[in-house]
Design a protein that fits this description.
It is a single chain. The strands form two sheets. This protein has a six-stranded parallel beta sheet, with helices on both faces. The protein is about 35% helix and about 20% strand. The chain is built from twelve helices and ten strands. The relative contact order is 0.14. By secondary structure, it is of the alpha/beta class. The protein has helices spanning about 5-20, 25-35, 50-55, 55-60, 100, 120-130, 150-155, 170-180, 195-200, 220-225, 245-255, 255-260; strands at about 20-25, 40-45, 65, 85-90, 110-115, 135-140, 165, 185, 205-210, 230. Helix 6 packs parallel to helix 7 (about 150-155) and helix 6 (about 120-130) runs parallel beside helix 11.
């Protein structure tokens, strides 16, 4: 019997995901990936100079690099990429299910991204999330930045340590977090209350912060699904923060009681 179209499409998507690989580049990103036991490494291209700088990581990863002349460095990455003579093909990281990642810390903090597609912004947010001890950064499978070499370089190693999940539906992910006790706050410039005001007496709860893309902000469905809309207090009407800067300020404002000194 012929398989239904939806079954065929699901199988094709599963095969495509299994075949997906990522080329990381740059000494820092490649070194951290080589040192990450969770990361499946496929092939490494390095110049002699980069090989010497990465010698310890190469030995730890037990990978046999392809050493190439700097003038003939032809890894399949954007020609404009600052690769520093190192490129590593890997499989994307699998952090598991949302609930598995977002349950565990005493007062967890999570960042959700609504159509944030710039890999440099997402990389910077991953760095910030790691600094503030966030349990995860969550985007969507479509309309969000995938795991790429540019994202890894912007994350400066955080991609290897900070859980980055991409879910099918952001509203459903929000509802799942709410079902396990999260207070979900959506960042919106027109909100009437600040993050600090919304968290008065509630800092001991798990908190998720939803950040929208610069310009359009949160989608209507997202606004309807979050528990409350909040803003970052500003000194005046001078514009808005870059989304990665806003994520840093929001995570600081929403830090748990012990970190906040409450």
């Amino acid at each position: 019997m012929k398989k239904p179209k939806w079954v065929v499409e699901k199988e094709q998507a599963r095969k495509a995901a299994a075949a997906e690989t990522v080329w990381l580049f740059g000494l820092h990103a490649v070194r951290d990936a080589l040192m990450n036991p969770r990361r499946e490494k496929l092939q490494l291209m390095v110049t002699p100079n980069a090989r010497d700088k990465l010698a310890e990581a190469i030995e730890a990863a037990r990978i046999d690099p392809e050493v190439v002349d700097p003038r003939k460095f032809a890894a399949p990455i954007d020609p404009g990429s600052v690769h520093q003579g190192a490129a590593l093909e890997v499989k994307p990281l699998d952090w598991g299910r949302l609930a598995d990642v977002c349950i565990g810390a005493a007062t967890p903090r999570v960042v959700l991204l609504d159509r944030v597609t710039d890999p440099h912004n997402v990389g910077a947010i991953l760095r910030t999330a790691e600094v503030f001890g966030a349990s995860a950064v969550i985007g969507t499978r479509h309309h969000s930045a995938p795991e790429t070499g540019a994202l890894a370089k912007a994350a400066s190693g955080a991609l290897e340590r900070q859980p980055y999940l991409r879910v099918k539906n952001l509203a459903e992910a929000i509802e799942e977090l709410q079902s396990i006790g999260y207070l979900v706050l959506g960042l919106a410039g027109e909100a009437t209350q600040s993050i600090e005001t919304a968290l008065e007496g509630r800092r001991d709860r798990p908190v998720a912060l939803v950040m929208g893309a610069e310009g359009p902000g949160l989608r209507e469905k997202t606004r309807e699904t979050v528990d409350e809309l909040v803003r970052i207090d500003a000194a005046g009407d001078f514009g808005s923060l870059n989304v990665s800067n806003a994520a840093a300020v929001a995570l600081y404002a929403a830090r748990p009681p012990r970190a906040a000194g409450v």
